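quick one
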Amino acid sequence: MQDAIEILKIYNQDHIIKLLDKLDETKKAELIEQINKIDFHQIMELYDNTKKEIEIKENKIESIKYLDKERLSKTQRDEFDSLGEMAIRKGEYAVVTMAGGQGTRLGHTGPKGTFKLDVYGKGKYLFEILTENLKEANKKYDTIIPWYIMTSKENNDETLEFLEKNNYFGYPKEFVNLFKQGELPLVDTKGKLLINKDMKIKEASDGNGGVFSSLRTSGMLSDMKERNIKWVFIGGVDNAILKMVDVTLLGMAIKNGVKIASKSVVKANPHERVGVFCKMNGHPKVIEYSELPEKMAEEIDENGELKYGESHIMCNLFSIEAIEKVSKEYLMYHSAFKKNSYIDEDGREIIPEEPNSYKFESFIFDSFEFFDDIAILRGKREDDFAPVKNKDGVDSPKTAKELYEKYWERQKCQKVRVFLKLLSRF
Ligand code: UTP
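structure w/ uridine 5'-triphosphate:
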């Protein structure tokens, strides 16, 4: 107890000392146990960093090479597709869905995957949409792709319950594995750790970059190796038209002999708030919109396109060796200013209307820097990207519904066209 109080004093967490005084013996013991596990030095360092300007001037930034899926020659496309298809048919492909986020902007109570998108009248849950995508691929390539779902401590039980209740939307249960990611405390603008309803320090998932170490520590990486998986697609839970099984992307990675690959879409305009691919000091990198100097954001290349115009859409592919490598590396933490409820000193629950606290997150794309090269395949926004991020406006359920329905409408028309073409041969 005394040690915990000393730590709290050093790091100016007097409100937690006061809280300890008010708790019964069991709750007190639980809180002390938690305090002893937290690296306060790290948290305060991350908090101090929120006050510092991000400096990128000394870095050498260059544009990155990519291939446009639409402009591949037939030979090239066929070669990629057949290489990708072969690996999938051999059972060397797995999918990871990162579903450990808090989804604060969407404001849905419950894990984001349990959000029902109002499509085709009846609506579909995001998890349901993902499952349909995987089931279709299984049918097409005559396989069952192992599916790993990353949850957080906060939403794991609810996610599991939801999937069980919905019978995994028909996905073979023995091929679905849930694993939890790590957490870090949330800190308010004065550097005080937030208190949760259960009278413990409030923690939240430590960003989607946590996927690599969590895959290893949870035993999922070993599971993949046992299943002889060679390639792992890692994507988010909140893109209603995410292509989790793209043979062209996979084949391109295999053909190019790279360890990582990613799908991009062209930036909608120079100032769209998305991260873009570049090479920094010779390594692949996604540079955040806030960190890209205005002049560079507007720079045009020899083809008249934005020089830094390939947006990262959370559609990434890693070889199993790449996952193993990154899982042992340190990924830096970024801070995100978010709305988080907490218990105040009088024991009242405060639900903020505006962002009030910092969440520390590592990002999946920071892993790219550990490699010399990446294969980037430019997709099409209307075919690849329908994000569900905000409650209203851009990237909201409304825009995602429109994109989703239009996409499937186009697919139907395409099928009819193929059918008619075949028919005309007879
Ligand atoms: P976002 O960065 O959009 O975050 O996640 P979010 O938590 O879903 O939403 P906001 O920012 O609170 O509104 C992109 C993807 O990464 C996953 C999310 O579940 C989503 O699929 N993610 C994010 C995690 O799995 N863990 C995290 O700690 C953060």
